[in-house]
Write a structure and sequence with these properties.
mainly alpha, Hormone receptor fold, about 60% helix, 2 domains, 12 helices, about 425 residues, Rhopdopsin 7-helix transmembrane proteins
Length: about 425
């Protein structure tokens, strides 16, 4: 029977133990002094050390994520025993601390704090707008609400993790249970974010290709995909990770088990690439016979705006440069893109959204007239240009300002023509 491959983490520890046995003194010094014993603590190799002294060794180079140019420390007490810590380990904080003290990484950390904070603020305002106006209650906006909620959840978990773990490297070695739970919440939030980006692409594709299959059932399906599937992925990942030997350092180090979450995320990006090309193909095909070149330009513009909505910019994250000169640029760009994506989506799909702007303007005018003392019966209207899907002729429709819920985006729950879809995707 074939022998099972050795766990990578166990192999690294065994190799470290081997190196330790090769380098430490084999016998206790016989000079009458008190010494702390030689020891391998799972990370580094500590030789016999005189009592009352501090032992210093280079950070282990055989461990991923450690900087061998830094040093680890362990105090030998007066009674000849190593100083007790929560996990009976030396102080390896400096081994990981370079990522925080190095200017590039430090500014990257500050950038992530600022970017995610700004995104959370703008996304929260956008959510208040969506929930405050009943005219904005429709399937498309419902998807945006859930997508924005996943961005907020991701931003909050990222900020909490950065503030409580990344800036305190010693926590990684203590490996408390709350740290691992926080890591799981972060993985779940990221998975939800990608799942809802997939739902956005799936919905737009369905509106164009199978317009009569839209409705509440489609929204329920998206809710299952957006919140349910990531929960199952995070649950399976947690169970297997707890049972594995790679159960250290707050699960910050990558494991083969991480493909339980990364695999579906990669699949969602591939599906969104397909949805994007399918949407563009259908729009260009149906608009090909029209002489209005502005529609083609709008299709191109809508395509560019769909890229962040569908999360396709994350594909570039897999192409990290090897040249150290460009690694800092890559790191800073990644920080900006990941932390400010929620900001961009909130601006494009709420603050610049035609329907949201129209509803807010009508509400503002109503409040203005109310404050001016004009209590007379008023009927405000707005005119929406649309194209009849059957006749392809331009028409207008006039709607009361106090229209029922969902009327402002009514066209998005009906079978949409290519022109309506382009207008829906193109912000103000």
């Amino acid at each position: 029977m074939a022998q099972e491959p050795e766990d990578p983490l166990k192999a690294i520890i065994n190799y470290g133990s081997y190196l330790c046995n090769m380098t430490v003194s084999q016998t206790h010094p016989d000079d009458g002094k008190v010494y702390c014993p030689s020891k391998f603590d799972g990370f580094g190799c500590w030789n016999y050390t005189v009592a009352g002294k501090q032992a210093i060794i280079p950070c282990p180079e055989h461990l991923p994520g450690f900087n061998p140019n830094q040093f680890a420390y362990w105090n030998c007490t007066e009674n000849g025993s190593w100083q007790n810590t929560s996990l009976n380990l030396a102080d390896y904080s400096k081994c990981l601390h370079e990522d925080v003290t190095d200017d590039t990484h430090k500014y990257g950390l500050y950038g992530m704090f600022a970017g995610f904070s700004l995104s959370i603020i703008l996304l929260t305002i956008a959510q208040l707008i969506f929930f405050s106006f009943k005219q904005l209650r429709c399937d498309r906006i419902t998807l945006h609400k859930n997508l924005f909620a996943s961005y907020i959840l991701t931003g909050l978990t990222k900020i909490i993790y950065l503030a409580s773990v990344t800036t305190e490297p010693t926590i990684l070695f203590e490996n408390p249970i709350w740290c691992r739970v926080l890591q799981i919440f972060q993985e779940y939030a990221v998975a939800c974010n990608f799942a809802w980006m997939l739902c956005e692409g799936f919905y737009l594709h369905t509106v164009l290709v199978w317009p009569f299959h839209t409705g509440k059932k489609l929204i329920y399906l998206c809710c299952g995909i957006g919140w349910g599937i990531p929960f199952l992925l995070a649950l399976f990942y947690t169970i297997f990770r707890f049972q594995s030997e790679n159960n250290i350092m707050c699960w910050m180090e990558q494991s083969d088990l991480h493909w339980i979450i990364d695999g579906p995320i990669c699949l969602s990006l591939l599906l969104n690439i397909y949805f994007l090309f399918a949407i563009v193909f259908v729009l260009l095909t149906k608009l090909r016979g029209m002489s209005d070149n502005s529609q083609t330009r709008k299709v191109f513009r809508a395509t560019m705006i769909l890229v962040p909505l569908l999360g396709l910019q994350y594909i570039l994250a897999g192409f990290s440069p090897k040249d150290p000169t460009f690694q800092d640029v890559y790191h800073i760009t990644t920080v900006i893109v990941s932390s400010l994506q929620g900001t961009f989506v909130a601006i494009m799909y709420c603050f610049f959204d035609r329907e949201a702007i129209s509803v807010i303007k009508r509400w503002y005018n109503q409040q203005k007239e109310s404050l001016s003392g004009n209590n007379s019966k008023r009927v405000s209207t707005y005119i929406t240009m649309y194209t009849d899907p059957l006749t392809a002729s331009n028409s207008t429709k006039t709607v009361d300002a106090d229209m029922p819920a969902g009327h402002a985006c009514k066209m998005n729950s009906d079978p949409a023509s290519p022109e309506e879809t382009v207008e829906m995707l193109t912000p103000e």
